[in-house]
């Protein structure tokens, strides 16, 4: 199956650029499979430019542990997220592992998580955050976590990266729904200077129907759908917008209209 294809049997009709729950569960496995297929014969000891504290080996362990953490919370139906079980940041000791070792381990974790999510009601309040149903949130978070870290790995290894536009569109919308407000809650002092009169950012995808306006004029960011004039607009293919907002690529090569300094300040200030 090519990277631009939906998994067989999964609905492809998406509403408002949001993947279905079933598609997200499938993409956790699909994106992991695409990642694993890129590893054969390559040096997993290379540093990852976009996560410079980690090698490819360590980043792969980070992703696999993230899958297993979510899987465990969903299977045990924990009422809230348990951060004490998360081993995804504790990866410094991993070194010298091969694709033959890590590939099956990654696929096992992704498949188990996908199965756990499909075995529960998506709207059940387990492993929830901010009042949102945990299964829905984790299906989306882990699908897009896998997408972004697949890019990190293949970029480090010099392997081409392709992704279905609807998957990239879902990742862009999740960034505005989750990463953006999380950043303002997590680092209030650092993000407060981004707010102020007349400060609006327009993200405009050129290949899918996705236009998002981020309004920074109030006490917290507000995201609106649609086309409207903003202080600055960033325009380009949706996958490139995703990489830009996740700070995986500079905005050079994309179209920028308006206050470029505001855009640079905004992208530098929103961390996730």
TrEMBL record:
All residue ranges annotated as the Mycothiol-dependent maleylpyruvate isomerase metal-binding domain in the record: 27-153
Positions of transmembrane segments: none
Gene3D superfamilies: dinb family like domain (1.20.120.450)
Organism: Lentzea atacamensis
Domain MDMPI C-terminal: 166-264
Annotated protein name in UniProt: Uncharacterized protein (TIGR03083 family)
């Amino acid at each position: 199956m090519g990277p631009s294809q939906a998994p067989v049997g999964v609905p492809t009709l998406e509403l408002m650029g949001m993947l279905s729950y079933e598609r997200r569960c499938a993409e956790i496995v699909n994106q992991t499979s695409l990642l694993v297929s890129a590893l054969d014969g390559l040096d997993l000891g290379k540093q990852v430019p976009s996560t410079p504290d980690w090698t490819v080996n360590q980043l792969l362990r980070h992703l696999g542990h993230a899958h297993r953490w979510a899987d465990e919370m969903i299977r045990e139906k924990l009422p809230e997220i348990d951060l004490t079980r998360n081993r995804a940041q504790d990866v410094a000791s991993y070194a010298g592992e091969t694709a033959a070792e890590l590939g099956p381990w990654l696929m096992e974790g992704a498949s188990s998580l996908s199965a756990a999510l499909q075995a529960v009601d998506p709207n059940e309040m387990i492993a929830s955050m901010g009042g949102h149903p945990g299964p829905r949130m984790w299906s989306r978070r882990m699908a897009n976590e896998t997408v972004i870290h697949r890019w990190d790995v293949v970029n480090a290894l010099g392997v081409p990266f392709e992704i279905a536009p609807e998957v990239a569109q879902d990742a862009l919308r999740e960034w505005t729904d989750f990463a953006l407000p999380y950043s303002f809650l997590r680092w209030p002092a650092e993000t407060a200077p981004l707010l102020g009169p007349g400060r609006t950012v327009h993200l405009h995808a050129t290949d899918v129907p996705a236009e998002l306006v981020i309004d920074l004029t109030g006490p917290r960011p507000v995201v609106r759908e649609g086309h409207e004039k903003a202080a600055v607009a960033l325009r380009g293919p949706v996958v490139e917008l995703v990489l830009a907002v996740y700070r995986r690529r500079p905005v050079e090569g994309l179209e920028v209209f308006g206050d470029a300094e505001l855009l640079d300040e905004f992208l530098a200030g929103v961390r996730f």
